[in-house]
Write a structure and sequence with these properties.
With 218 residues, the protein is of the alpha+beta class. Helix content is 55%, strand content 11%. The protein contains nine helices and four strands; from the N terminus they run H-H-H-H-H-H-H-H-E-E-H-E-E. The chain has helices at residues 3-7, 10-26, 33-49, 54-66, 78-92, 97-108, 120-130, 148-155, 183-203; strands at 156-163, 169-176, 207-212, 215-216. Strand 3 (207-212) and strand 4 form a beta hairpin. Helix 4 crosses helix 7 (120-130). The N and C termini lie far apart (39 Å).
Length: 218
């Protein structure tokens, strides 16, 4: 089964929609189709650029699309509950056990609270997920009522994740409007994520760099 077939699966899309509605009720940023398709695209880009086999690239895209469905159950430990949900879905769709295992393991390890880049697929998913910081993920339209998560996400006007030509470095470049959030605000919210990104890059034999407004920070 292909990534496009997963994207067009109505059952899966219902779970993604309902998970995002649950997060919306809790005041979290957007975790719907814009987020999961972005993550799927970036995860695929990482493994494809590094020369991994085509099917593993597609599995990374599938993992990216499914990675946040556990938010339907609860935000807490959503990576583990999402892995269990993904297992049931993929088993029902007759995926082979080795592919189910690879996807489930990646989903279960994508969150910075408990996640570990246990495989190249998991590492690609981590980097793709944690690099999706952007203004239009903020639901709150009242700037005077922004919390720090709103300010940090809203402050990012552009984000690029690129692997260099020599395949030795993966760099996240952010453009930050400091009227809404400072560089220190970013690190207060996302330091654990950046540490996990560095570990994920190392799993892929890459060095991780973070650049904000032209300044190298990691």
């Amino acid at each position: 089964m292909t990534y496009e077939e997963i994207r067009n699966n109505s059952e899966i899309n219902t779970y993604i929609q309902q998970a995002d509605l649950a997060l919306s009720a809790l005041g979290y940023t957007e975790h719907s189709f814009a987020h999961v398709t972005t993550v799927a695209k970036k995860a695929g880009y990482i493994l494809q650029t590094l020369g991994y086999e085509e099917r593993l690239v597609e599995l990374a895209q599938i993992a990216g699309y499914l990675h946040d469905i556990g938010n339907l159950v609860n935000r807490a430990e959503h990576s583990q509950s999402g892995a269990i949900m993904a297992f049931r879905i993929l088993d029902h769709l007759n995926f082979p056990p080795d592919e189910i295992g690879a996807i489930v393991s990646a989903i279960g390890n994508h969150d910075e609270g408990t996640g570990v880049p246990v495989s190249p697929l998991a590492a690609a998913l981590i980097l793709a997920d944690k690099s999706d910081v952007r203004r239009n993920r903020v639901r709150n339209q009242d700037e005077s009522n922004f919390d720090i998560h709103d300010r940090v996400n809203y402050s990012v006007t552009d984000a690029e994740l690129n692997i260099n030509a020599a395949h030795t470095l993966i760099e996240l470049k952010l453009s930050v409007d400091t009227r809404y959030g400072s560089v220190m605000d970013y690190f207060e919210i996302f330091l654990q994520r950046m540490i996990l990104c560095r570990k994920a890059a190392e799993k892929l034999r890459l060095q991780f760099k973070l650049q904000i407004n032209g300044q190298q920070l990691i």
